[in-house]
Amino acid sequence: MVKSRQVYQTWSLIGLIILSLASCDQILPRMTGYKNYTHPSLRFQVHYPAKWTLIEGGSFGTQVQFLSDSPSIFLANANIAVNRNPNLSLEALADLSAKQLTILLPNYELETKAIGTLGKHKAVDLRGVYDAAEGKRKIRSVIAIINEMQYVFTFTCEAQDEHSYAKTINKMIDSFSL
């Protein structure tokens, strides 16, 4: 009886240790097949799939890109752009973003515009479709204004692959923090 109580207490202690380690931001991504990225100067963080390729920098204000390990011609990708907000409301910024996508992407069509979150921050979630040389692509932009800065998380993939990436992209968006 005493020995079974000791075994129970030992396993309870191990369980508590595992739970406390799993709550740590640095440990959880590794345990779930994700890595944690922290931008060196802007200090935002996001979890991304461990098998994806990370590229810092880019065009259009992109601070970081995450490229999928997809075997297709077009690599599904996510990126985060950060810019100073020129005193626009979140609604106005979302409308401006949709207009820019219409100008930049062939036959861009906004499918949905909804209030959402980027991490724990209020955001506007734009979802659309556009034409590419090899077929239709889906693009999702989640836009937030935090501390006078614009944060735009964008995900793009081949239209037929959108559903297969939904869980991964939602996890990345939910993990965003400052």
Give the SSE map:
Layout: H1 2-22, H2 27-31, E1 34-38, E2 45-49, E3 53-56, E4 62-67, E5 77-84, H3 90-104, E6 109-118, E7 121-132, E8 135-146, E9 149-158, H4 162-175
Antiparallel strand pairs: 1-2, 3-4, 4-5, 5-9, 6-7, 7-8, 8-9
Descriptive account of the structure:
The longest helix has 21 residues, at 2-22. The termini are far apart. This protein has 2 domains: 1-31; 33-175, Protein Transport Mog1p, Chain A, CATH 3.40.1000.10. It has helices at residues 2-22, 27-31, 90-104, 162-175; strands at residues 34-38, 45-49, 53-56, 62-67, 77-84, 109-118, 121-132, 135-146, 149-158. The chain is of the alpha+beta class and 178 residues long. The model is unreliable at 7-30 (pLDDT under 50). It has 4 helices and 9 strands. A hairpin with a 5-residue loop joins β3 and β4 (62-67). 31% of the residues lie in helices and 40% in strands. The strands form 2 sheets. Strands 3-4-5-9-8-7-6 form a 7-stranded antiparallel beta sheet, with helices on both faces.
